[in-house]
Specification:
single chain, alpha+beta, eight-stranded antiparallel sheet, 8 strands, globular
């Protein structure tokens, strides 16, 4: 399990709205990678997705997930995080979904996007950091 010190360092690095590259394990054993927006509450990294997405199906079969979050433009600094992932469904998804969207969009655009997301089969992927690797000072 990640230490308190690692989680604090993680929070500091991923506080800016960066892109998380999410890795899940495909049905053939190959990694499946996708770029995603995220939020972090100090305990879990949350990502919004939909049921038809490959990562959702992969996590139903195997709940292990890893993410790499990097600095731009050269990715000279980055962190990788891996651990078990809980799939959250139902009305509990909207608070973390709002937190994610508001990190990346101005308020007027965030509300419009959230409205459009309500008609989608949305879920939240909540990654609990077990292993954390840092590549920055």
């Amino acid at each position: 399990m990640a230490t308190t010190q690692q989680l604090e360092r993680l929070r500091e690095f991923i506080e800016p709205a960066r892109i998380a590259v999410v890795a899940t394990i495909g049905s053939d054993g190959m990694p499946h990678l996708t770029p995603n927006w995220y939020a972090y509450d100090g305990k879990t990294i949350v990502i919004s997705t939909t049921r038809p997405r490959v990562k959702y199906r992969n996590l139903q079969r195997d709940p292990r997930m890893a993410v790499s979050i990097y600095s731009e433009p050269m990715a000279a600094e980055y962190v990788t995080v891996s651990g078990p992932t809980e799939i959250i469904e139902g009305d509990r998804i909207w608070k973390p979904t709002r937190e994610i969207v508001q990190r990346y969009l101005p308020p007027d655009k965030a509300d419009a996007m959230l409205d459009s997301m309500r008609s989608q089969e949305r879920v939240i992927l909540a990654l609990t950091p077990e292993k954390v690797f840092f590549r920055y000072p």
